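Project outcomes to date are best conveyed with an example. Our students and postdoctoral researchers have been running inverse folding experiments weekly, and each run begins with a structure described purely in tokens. The record below, which covers 97 residues, was selected by the lab manager from last quarter's runs and is presented without edits.
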């Protein structure tokens, strides 16, 4: 007998069916972005409020996503700084000639 799975009552990220859940369409605490926006930004997975897929995440995944979002922003920011540094080093070498 097939187990009945209610996808509306699952975590979108890890599929756990026990809450508490955080809605993907609620704003994140310190950002003006919705969880669905940072979910897509970090995972490249499309989240829509008009599909039949889960629209919430468990607390553990919501926390992980917030951490991942901070990590990704940090890496991108550092990457810009590093590239600027390399560029300025290159310019110094060129002016010597
Ligand atoms: Zn989860």
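After processing, the design step wrote out the following sequence:
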């Amino acid at each position: 007998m097939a187990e009945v799975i209610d996808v509306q009552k699952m975590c979108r990220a890890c599929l756990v069916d026990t809450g508490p859940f955080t809605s993907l369409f609620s704003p994140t605490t310190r950002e003006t972005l919705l969880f669905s926006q940072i979910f897509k930004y970090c995972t490249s997975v499309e989240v829509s409020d008009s599909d039949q897929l889960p629209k919430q995440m468990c607390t553990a995944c919501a926390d992980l996503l917030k951490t991942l979002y901070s990590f990704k922003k940090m890496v991108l920011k550092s990457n810009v700084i590093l590239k600027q540094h390399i560029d300025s080093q290159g310019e110094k070498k060129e002016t010597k000639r």
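Residues 7-71 form a domain with the His-Me finger endonuclease fold fold (CATH 3.40.1800.20). The first strand starts at residue 21 and ends at 23. The training component of this project remains on track.
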